[in-house]
Structures are given as structure tokens and as C-alpha cells.
Write a structure and sequence with these properties.
Blueprint (H helix, E strand, L loop, with lengths): L1 H10 L1 H4 L3 H26 L1 H9 L11 H19 L1 H21 L12 E7 L6 H18 L3 E8 L13 E8 L11 H15 L4 E5 L1 H11 L5 E7 L2 H16 L4 E6 L5 E8 L1 H6 L4 H13 L1 E8 L2 E7 L14 E3 L5 E3 L4 E8 L4 E3 L2 E10 L4 H15 L7 E6 H31 L2 H8 L1 H15 L6 H30 L4 H32 L5 H39 L1
Antiparallel strand pairs: 1-3, 1-4, 2-3, 5-14, 5-15, 6-14, 7-12, 8-9, 10-11, 13-14
Length: about 575
């Protein structure tokens, strides 16, 4: 018992080593399981034997096995006899299942965490960066009315423009988050799902309330993505360099490639387009001839555009400037014709004192790691996130090579997925070695430990098959399921091999020992597997909020327990005689 519990405890070590978002999600579960197992082990070695001796009496033992156990024995014995009579066929089928599992593993998509259905939507919109506040409010209001009146599934709509008073979100007035509260799915039109609703809303906005950028996401998903990669999309690709024009061109080419990849949606460059600006360069000789210097000319331009401070006033403890400015500053196209007072009291148009030109300029310049950065973001729907990014990596390398001095970095959920993979890539092998060492310590022989360890790949075969049948990607949640499953699978192998060793020590031949051990240990093996599986069935079939995270984990455990139990009760007894002689000599 001690070694079995120790194996299960070691299985949860990789989960405890997770950090970041994945650690926040799954470390509490691993800690709870470890503490529960330790408490159960202490009780099993101390309290339970004492309580059994004090409470149980011989009459408490039933005269015959329960009906369910007898029914399972009747079904199991013919299968066991057939398997022990045809070991080569059993070995061939076992090998074929391993090959099938490996092939399915290579075909299964990868994702960081399953996409949650939060029940509501957020529509992120962007308009021209030089839009006025009145226009932004007017267009957001029009969007609210369109969404609220045209689709019955929409219950309430609220738009948030720009940054709030406490600027947790740094947004310009050209950006708006439109929060859409949806009715419960039971009240939706027949046959309508969320993807179809998003397409319907997108088409509606495109015709009645268009915007430059319209992206659909969910409230928590938006915050989650922003915390992970600094962008509100599922995946972000940051391009670093020094030349803004070059970065913009690379971003546009990259966005075009991403938009053509199946599964990549809501592709956008996370920077507003260039805006026209008026560039004023004082002409030193012309200004000097009128008794002015360059600073005088620029102060006049500032006064024309933003006004001048005439004094200060107080509102309570606040000191506020009083500014004097033109009622309506002239547009940039007419700035050169504005008359400017000179030092001698004359009026002269600005174009005689400075060169005034209109040219496009970046409305937003992001910096990170001492370099300029532009971000291309996109969401993933209808495909596995890891597969989409891996395909894009190859395609971008071929179609959009990065010039010297530029580099790109993938972020968002893919970055977290890559970090979790890298961490588990060395933690899991270390734990596997530790588990194998515990099995060697328990059996003191190499081949019994190796036989028990075959339960891990067979359990994984059932798990990956279950994921494939349910069309679920290989997410971090599923990986946690595989980790938990391997401990239960090894435990069943320990139960069977321990009984076989006892029968061999009593003088039974290996074939008879394997058969008798399988018969006698059928009940505890089935109890261990069925109790664990039944505990995960509600999670596997759950459909409520948050079920998307539970479902892959439970699916892997239930499917893996089926294949692992078949190995323990059918394959291992049939093949054990081939290893018995060498095993005892090992």
C-alpha cells in the first residue's frame, strides 16, 4: 500500500511545478489530492485496522459475493481463458492499439486551455484615430441600438469608450468595448449556436453600424488574453525593429498571411493607422527679419492649436489652469494662412515665417525591450490553437522573411502553452524515473517493474482515443488528466503483480499464477477503476459554465481507465508467462 500511494503522490509532482496561469488553475487540485492521499494513508495504517478489529464481526462477512460481482465474474472468466489461450493474438492486438494511439496523438490538435463559453460577448471596435468625442459617442450609441433591437438573443448592450477615470485600460476615444448580455441558451432560436450568432451580429453591424475594426470576444477571455500577452486576442505576434514604416509593412504582410489560415479569425494590427499631421519648421532668416526667433514661431503655433495659459483658478483644493484659445482651431490645411503678429506689430501669414507641410505620421508608437514594436493579433475558432500557430510559423517563414535588425515573438495563449510544454518536458521524465525507481524498490526485480510500467502507455491510448471520439484538443487540462491517469494505472498493475508474486512463492507455475491472480484481483481492480471513473463521469458530461475546462480532463481519465483495466485484467495475465522465467532470474 505504501509504495502504491507513493507512486500516485509522485504522479502529481509535475502539476505542483506549474507556474503562471496554468499553475494558478491546477496547483490547488494537485495540493488537495496530495493532502487527501497522505491523510488516507495514515488512516489506513492506523485507524482503519483498529476500527475494523473493534467493530467488525465474522457474521458481517457476506456468505456470497454481491450480485454485481458475480455478474462481472461470469463475463470476465471466458474472456480471461480465451486471452491466456491465444497470447500471440493478444500481443498483436496490444501492439496495434499502441500504434493506433501514437498515430492519433500526432493527429490531435494542441491548445493551452479550452475555450470557455461565458454566456456573454464583447465587441471591440476601432475607428479613425482622429475621431472626435461627440462622433465616438454617437456611433457607439447607434451600435447599441442596432444590436439591441434586431436580435432577440441580445438582452442588454453597454458601450465603453476610451479610458475610464481609473485608467486600468489605456484606450483612446477611437476604441470602444461593447458589452453584450445574451439570454440563456434555452431561450435562443432553434438550431442557433454561438458561432452562428456571432456571424449574424457581424453582418448586422457591417451594414447598419460599420466600424474600421470589429472583433468578437468574451469579457473574461479578453482580460485573460491581455494578462497573458499584453493583447486582447488569443494569439499575438510582436514584430520588433527600428523603422516604423518597415514594421508597418511587415505587419500588413503578416496579417494577410494569417487571415488566410483556417481557424485564424479577427485578424488585426494592434496599432491605429497613420494620421495626417501638420509639420511646422521655422525659417530662421525670415523669422529674424521680423524680430522673432524659432521659439517665438513655435509658441504662436501652440497658441493657435491649443491656446495659452492666462492664469489659474481653484476648485476646492484643485488648481486648474485658465486657457485662452480660438473657438475653433483652424484645420491643418489652413494653418499656413493664419496671420501671425510680429514683434513690430504687423500681421504676416505663418507660411512666410515657417514651412508648413502635411504628412502622415504614426498615431501610436509602442516600445518594448528598448525597441519599437507592432503587434498583429488574432483569435482562434474552429481549430486547435497550437496547430494554427505551428502552421503559421512555417508559412510566415517562407512568405514573410524578416529583414536584418527585426525579430518576431509569439505571445498570448501560445506563449503560455510553450512555457508549460517546456517545463513538463523535463519534469515528467524526472518523475517517470522516480516512479520506476519506486517500483524497483517494491519488487526488487527489473522486469516486473517494467511490466507494471506498460500500464502508462496503454492508459494513454484510451485517453487519446476518448479525446478523438469527442473531438477535443490536447489542452493543458487533458495533459493534467493523463498525469492523474498514470498513477491509477500503475496502482492496478501493482495490485496484480503483487498477487502473482505471492502465488509464485507458493509454488504455482507462472501460467497458473497469472490466471489465478487475475481471477482473485478482478474485484479490487474493477473497484479502483470504476470508482475513479464514476467520479469523473459527471465532469465528462457537464455542460454548464466552466465545463469546457473539466471535460478534457475527465474524458482522458475515463477513457484511459478503460484501456488500463483491459491491460491489467486481460493482456498482462496472457503475456506474463513469457516473462516469468526471466523475470524471476532478473
Amino acid at each position: 500500500m505504501f509504495f502504491s500511494v507513493l507512486v500516485i503522490l509522485l504522479v502529481y509532482v509535475p502539476i505542483v511545478t506549474l507556474t503562471g496561469v496554468d499553475g494558478k488553475m491546477f496547483r490547488p487540485m494537485a495540493a488537495a489530492v496530495i493532502m487527501a492521499l497522505l491523510a488516507a494513508l495514515i488512516l489506513a495504517l492506523t485507524f482503519v485496522p483498529a476500527a475494523a478489529a473493534a467493530v467488525l464481526r465474522p457474521r458481517d462477512v457476506p456468505a456470497r459475493e454481491p450480485f454485481v460481482v458475480r455478474l462481472a465474474e461470469r463475463a470476465y472468466h471466458p474472456v480471461l481463458r480465451a486471452a491466456t489461450r491465444a497470447p500471440l493474438l493478444v500481443a498483436a492486438l496490444a501492439l496495434a492499439s499502441l500504434v493506433l494511439g501514437g498515430w492519433l496523438f500526432t493527429r490531435t490538435g494542441a491548445a493551452f486551455v479550452p475555450q470557455l463559453d461565458e454566456g456573454d460577448l464583447v465587441i471591440q471596435t476601432e475607428r479613425a484615430p482622429n475621431i472626435s468625442l461627440d462622433s465616438a459617442v454617437r456611433e457607439a450609441t447607434a451600435m447599441e441600438r442596432v444590436l439591441l433591437g434586431a436580435v432577440p438573443e441580445v438582452r442588454a448592450v453597454v458601450a465603453r469608450i476610451g479610458s475610464p477615470a481609473v485608467a486600468t485600460d489605456i484606450m483612446g476615444i477611437e476604441q470602444a468595448d461593447v458589452f453584450v448580455e445574451l439570454a440563456p441558451k434555452s431561450q435562443w432560436r432553434d438550431g442557433l449556436d454561438k458561432d452562428a450568432l456571432v456571424q449574424e451580429l457581424g453582418a448586422l453591424l457591417a451594414t447598419k453600424a460599420p466600424a474600421d475594426v470589429v472583433v468578437f470576444t468574451q469579457p473574461i477571455q479578453m482580460r485573460f488574453n491581455e494578462l497573458l500577452g499584453g493583447a486582447v486576442t488569443d494569439v499575438s505576434l510582436s514584430i520588433f525593429g527600428d523603422d516604423l514604416a518597415q514594421l508597418r509593412d511587415l505587419a500588413e504582410q503578416t496579417a494577410e498571411v494569417i487571415a488566410g489560415q483556417p481557424g485564424a479569425v479577427d485578424v488585426r494590427i494592434m496599432a491605429p493607422p497613420d494620421v495626417a499631421v501638420a509639420e511646422v519648421r521655422p525659417r530662421m532668416l525670415a523669422a529674424g527679419s521680423h524680430g522673432m526667433v524659432a521659439a517665438d514661431v513655435l509658441r504662436v503655433v501652440q497658441a493657435i492649436r491649443t491656446g495659452v495659459t492666462a492664469g489659474y483658478t481653484y476648485v476646492g483644493p484643485l488648481r486648474l489652469p485658465v486657457r485662452v484659445r480660438l473657438g475653433e482651431p483652424p484645420p491643418a490645411s489652413l494653418l499656413a494662412r493664419v496671420p501671425v503678429p510680429t514683434a513690430d506689430g504687423a500681421l504676416i501669414e505663418l507660411e512666410h515665417l515657417a514651412t508648413v507641410e502635411q504628412r502622415p505620421a504614426a498615431s501610436l508608437v509602442n516600445h518594448d525591450d528598448a525597441q519599437r514594436r507592432i503587434v498583429v493579433g488574432f483569435n482562434v475558432r474552429g481549430a486547435a490553437l497550437g496547430d494554427v500557430v505551428e502552421a503559421l510559423k512555417a508559412e510566415l517563414a517562407a512568405r514573410v522573411p524578416l529583414p536584418r535588425g527585426t525579430r518576431s515573438v509569439w505571445g498570448g495563449q501560445y506563449e503560455s502553452l510553450a512555457e508549460a510544454r517546456a517545463r513538463l518536458a523535463w519534469v515528467i521524465p524526472a518523475v517517470v524515473v522516480a516512479i520506476f525507481a519506486v517500483l524497483l524498490l517494491a519488487f526488487r526485480r527489473l522486469r516486473p517493474a517494467a511490466l507494471i510500467f506498460t500500464h502508462v502507455p496503454f492508459a494513454c491510448v484510451g485517453g487519446i482515443l476518448a479525446l478523438t471520439l469527442r473531438d477535443l484538443p490536447l489542452s493543458l487540462s487533458a495533459a493534467i488528466g493523463f498525469i492523474a491517469l498514470s498513477g491509477i494505472a500503475v496502482l492496478n498493475g501493482v495490485v496484480l503483480l503483487s498477487q502473482i508474486d505471492e502465488l509464485l512463492a507458493q509454488g504455482h507455475d507462472p501460467r497458473r499464477a497469472a490466471f489465478a491472480a487475475a481471477e482473485s484481483r478482478m474485484r479490487p481492480v474493477l473497484m479502483t477503476a470504476s470508482v475513479a471513473a464514476l467520479g469523473f463521469v459527471p465532469m465528462m458530461l457537464a455542460t454548464g459554465t466552466g465545463a469546457e475546462v473539466q471535460r478534457p480532463l475527465a474524458t482522458v481519465v475515463v477513457g484511459g481507465l478503460v484501456s488500463s483495466t483491459l491491460l491489467t485484467l486481460v493482456i498482462l495475465p496472457a503475456l506474463y508467462p513469457f516473462f516469468a522465467g526471466r523475470s524471476r532470474a532478473a
